[in-house]
Each structure stands twice: as structure tokens, then as C-alpha cells.
Automatic annotation (TrEMBL):
Organism superkingdom: Bacteria
Similarity comment: family membership: Belongs to the zinc-containing alcohol dehydrogenase family.
Gene Ontology terms for molecular function: oxidoreductase activity, acting on the CH-OH group of donors, NAD or NADP as acceptor; zinc ion binding
Necessary cofactors: Zn(2+)
Coiled-coil annotated residue ranges, if any: none
Name the record gives this protein: L-iditol 2-dehydrogenase
Pfam families: ADH_N, ADH_zinc_N
Protein keywords: Metal-binding, Oxidoreductase, Zinc
Record organism: Lentilactobacillus diolivorans DSM 14421
Keyword check for Oxidoreductase: yes
Ranges for domain Enoyl reductase (ER): 23-361
Cited Gene3D superfamilies: Medium-chain alcohol dehydrogenases, catalytic domain, NAD(P)-binding Rossmann-like Domain
Zinc as UniProt keyword: yes
Length: 369
């Protein structure tokens, strides 16, 4: 469902736009309400964006059905949503990177820009980060948002808004490849074929990985992984993933592992799937506080372990890569809702892991399609 042909530009300026916007607000667990929420005054370097597509993330669902993720707790009404794209409808006087009418992907985290982490280019680690839909920061399941120009990125005319919204989960895989310094002609194993894992297939391939093995327990996800370019798929309901990986690699193991499952057993097995000198990236967050790891194996194999937190400096590159793979990316889009149907969209994502992949919400579309 591509909405790009049906977009109208409202007649707004930096000094003349609504003081409120319609938003889907999480009042408390399982309680989503449509509200008029305030829009802030635009700074000279801000843009006003008409939000066109927002993907539902697992974190949105977690806040919706439990009210917290770790130390982040929903203590007051919160606007969800952080995987998004839209169209610029007004700009501040000092905006130079985009103009009215530009279609953009929206990077959802705004760092302080002044701390040591920001100065070193590691702004994903900024302790003052304002990340959409992470309490107490509101997300963008709204018709309009005001946002800094530095974190909006123009997208090609041929790129649907839905695909541009995928740049957020895709950026995780790009960041993994950059942190692991992925080299061409190598092998990789990715566990967990949610959106992040599926998009990581594309990222690893783009960085030159020759052979990609993946695992999951859902038929739709495994089928989609093949469409995304996985060379071998492992159904963990039927096959021991570690044994299968060793069989596929002549008992040598793989160069890189990315765990996107957050499953404690998978996180332990992923480590042992590495060849000597291999690298593993932990992306999925387990439900338990501590996971025992095999230290003797790690020292004997000189394993390199990376914890991954979001991403940094990936968005422009992500847009360029996604633009080359529009057809294959359509495989991830399975369900479509209007803003009024946000609760239904969250319930779909929460309860139908076997039948849905990426659920999209259209804040400025009135009818479901």
C-alpha cells in the first residue's frame, strides 16, 4: 500500500500551522486513545513533517502490553512510534538540508551533540538522547511532528514511504556490520527473523558476506528470509541450530554471528557457532537479567563480542542501500492500518507473530486497505 501518490501539501508555514495534532496516545497498558496533542514552536533549524507511514516495533508492543522495558517505564501518557517517514510541509529560516515538499526518512533519536560520546561520533550512546517512544519522550504516531533538520533524510521519488520507514530497523543491521568490520567473502549466522533480523540479511549481503545462515521458529519468517537472500534456513523446531551450522561449515563455524532473537539459549549457541577469531553481535534483549557465557570457549577461540545499542551515522547509507532493493523489501510489509486503528495494529503485532511481519500505520490515511 504505497500512499505517495495521494499526498497533498497543507498550506502551512513556519509561523502558521496548527497548535495541536491528532495522535495515538498510550494512556496505560492496553489503553490507546486518539487525542489532540500540542505541537511545539518551530526553531529556525526545525521542519514540520506530515507523517505518512509508521512501522510498529516490538518495543511499541512491549510498552503497550507491559508498560515498561527495563528502566524505561510509562509513567504518563505516551505517543508511540519511531519507525517513520513523511513529507516536509514547512521549514525554519535556517533549514538548508531539506525543503518543503521533500519526502524524508526520520531518524528517531536526537542526541545532545555536546557530550564526549557525541563528539566522538558515538551519539547512540549519548546519555541525554531523546529517542522517540522511549519514556518520557513521545513518538510520532501523529499526523504532524516538528523535528530537527539534522535527523531527516531525503528519499528518492521511487521509494515508498513504507520502505523508508524500514530504514530504522535496517540501520541496526548496518551498524552491526560496521562494528564487526564485516569483510567480503565471509560467512554469517543470524538468529531471530523478526524485522531486524530479516533486514540484517540485506545488510550483511551488502557488506560482502558470501554465505548467510539464519534461524527462527515461524514458517512465514523463514520463508521471507529465503526471499531476502538467506542461503540456508534453520527451523529450530526441527533442527539443532548449532549442529546444523557446524555441518554446513565443515565443523569450522562462521565468521560472524548476529543474535536478534534475545533468546538465552540462542545467545549461548550463537557464541559456539563462531570459528576461531570470530565476532558476535548481541542485538536482541533477553527477558532474563544475566546470561551465562562460555568463557573458556571465548578465550580459546579469541572471540570478539559486541553489544549493539541502536545505531549511529547509518541513515543516509541506509536510504541508498534500500533504494536498490525495493522489490524484495515489499516482502516484509504484511498489514496496514490507519491512525484510528492503532490499537488493532498493536494487537495484530502482539498476537500474530506467525502471520505478520511489519505492520504499518498511516497517520494521514483515513481508510484501511
Amino acid at each position: 500500500m504505497d500512499v505517495k501518490e495521494r499526498v497533498s501539501l497543507p498550506n502551512y508555514t513556519k509561523d502558521n500551522y496548527p497548535k495541536t495534532t491528532r495522535s495515538a496516545v498510550l494512556n496505560k497498558v492496553f489503553d490507546i486513545e486518539m487525542k489532540d496533542t500540542p505541537l511545539p514552536a518551530m526553531k529556525p533549524t526545525d521542519v514540520l513533517i506530515k507523517v505518512m507511514a509508521v512501522g510498529i516495533c516490538g518495543s511499541d508492543v512491549h510498552y503497550y502490553d507491559t508498560g515498561h522495558i527495563g528502566d524505561f517505564v510509562v509513567k504518563k501518557p505516551l505517543i508511540l512510534g519511531h519507525e517513520s517517514s513523511g513529507i516536509v510541509v514547512a521549514t525554519g529560516d535556517e533549514v538548508t538540508t531539506v525543503k518543503r515538499g521533500d519526502r524524508v526518512a526520520i531518524e528517531p533519536g536526537v542526541p545532545c551533540g555536546h557530550c564526549n560520546y557525541c563528539r566522538e561520533g558515538k551519539y547512540n550512546l549519548c546519555p541525554n538522547m531523546k529517542f522517540m517512544a522511549t519514556p518520557p519522550v513521545d513518538g510520532d504516531l501523529s499526523e504532524l511532528i516538528v523535528y530537527p533538520q539534522d535527523f531527516v533524510f531525503p528519499i528518492p521519488d521511487e521509494m515508498p514511504y513504507e520502505i523508508a520507514a524500514l530504514n530504522e530497523p535496517f540501520s541496526v543491521g548496518v551498524h552491526v556490520c560496521q562494528k564487526l568490520d564485516v569483510k567480503p567473502g565471509t560467512t554469517a549466522f543470524i538468529s531471530g527473523m523478526g524485522a531486524v533480523g530479516l533486514l540484517a540479511i540485506l545488510a550483511f549481503r551488502q557488506f560482502g558476506v558470501d554465505r548467510i545462515i539464519v534461524s527462527d521458529s515461524e514458517d512465514l519468517r523463514l520463508e521471507t528470509a529465503k526471499k531476502m537472500g538467506a542461503d540456508e534456513i534453520i527451523d529450530i523446531r526441527k533442527t539443532d541450530s548449532l549442529e546444523e551450522i557446524m555441518s554446513l561449515t565443515n565443523n569450522e563455524g562462521v565468521d560472524y554471528v548476529m543474535d536478534a532473537s534475545g533468546n538465552p539459549a540462542a545467545e549461548r549457541e550463537g557464541l559456539r557457532a563462531l570459528k576461531r577469531g570470530g565476532k558476535i553481535a548481541y542485538v536482541g534483549v533477553p527477558t532474563t537479567d544475566k546470561i551465562p557465557l562460555d568463557i573458556p570457549f571465548m578465550t580459546d577461540h579469541e572471540t570478539q563480542i559486541f553489544g549493539i545499542f541502536r545505531y549511529a551515522n547509518t541513515y543516509a547509507l541506509g536510504v541508498k542501500i534500500l533504494a536498490k532493493h525495493l522489490d524484495v523489501l515489499e516482502n516484509l510489509l504484511t498489514n496496514y492500518y490507519s491512525l484510528d486503528e492503532t490499537r488493532d495494529a498493536l494487537e495484530e503485532t502482539r498476537t500474530d507473530k506467525g502471520g505478520s511481519l511489519k505492520v504499518m500505520i498511516y497517520p494521514n490515511e483515513k481508510l484501511r486497505s
